[in-house]
Design brief:
The protein is mainly α and 163 residues long. Helix content is 76%, strand content 0%. The chain has one domain: MetI-like fold (Orthogonal Bundle). It is built from 7 helices and no strands. The relative contact order is 0.13. The model has no long low-confidence stretch (mean pLDDT 86). It is a multi-pass membrane protein. Keywords: Amino-acid transport, Cell inner membrane, Cell membrane, Membrane, Transmembrane, Transmembrane helix, Transport.
Length: 163
């Protein structure tokens, strides 16, 4: 049995399909930028090692956000934003709701991916930076930044492709 796919019925709708593709790319790009920014902030919070009470509380709250988002299906998160937020009085357009849902979801995954990349760095590199008098940010961005964080960025883009 052979099947012949006939796409000729779609040709009249090609402009609408291309318009939808453009909207999809725009929404994904905006959500990706927001998710990466959220992930960088979250990874910095999760990797901080201060014992101040406010930092500890912030680290635990952010950890709760990451665990809740990563352990619930994306469709549930999207439904909560699309139907739950208007019930609370916050009206969003379909595009805004989609971007918000994807940003929140990608932010949680990005937090863990970037945090894992940071913690994958050998402790000797952090100690060497401290001995040289470098700050944590200087140590983070010095020398072999690419090699230390390449796997984290590859993981991040594969997670982004799942959107």
């Amino acid at each position: 049995m052979t099947y012949q796919l006939n796409f000729s019925a779609l040709w009249p709708y090609l402009p609408e399909l291309l318009s939808g593709l453009l909207i999809t790319i725009e929404l994904t790009a905006i959500a990706t930028l927001g998710g990466i920014a959220l992930g960088i902030v979250g990874a910095a919070i999760r990797c901080s090692h201060t014992s101040r009470l406010d930092k500890v509380i912030l680290r635990r709250v952010w950890g709760g956000y990451v665990e809740i988002v990563r352990n619930t299906p994306f469709v549930v998160q999207l439904f909560f934003i699309v139907f739950g937020l208007p019930a609370l009085g916050l009206k969003l357009s379909a595009g805004q709701a989609a971007v918000l849902a994807m940003t929140i979801n990608l932010g949680a995954y990005s937090t863990e991916i970037i945090r894992a990349g940071i913690q994958a760095s050998a402790k000797g590199q952090w100690e060497a930076g401290r001995v040289l008098g470098l700050s944590r940010s200087q140590t983070f961005f010095s020398g072999d930044f690419y090699h230390r964080h390449c796997s984290a960025f590859i993981q991040h883009w594969s997670a982004n492709a799942s959107l």
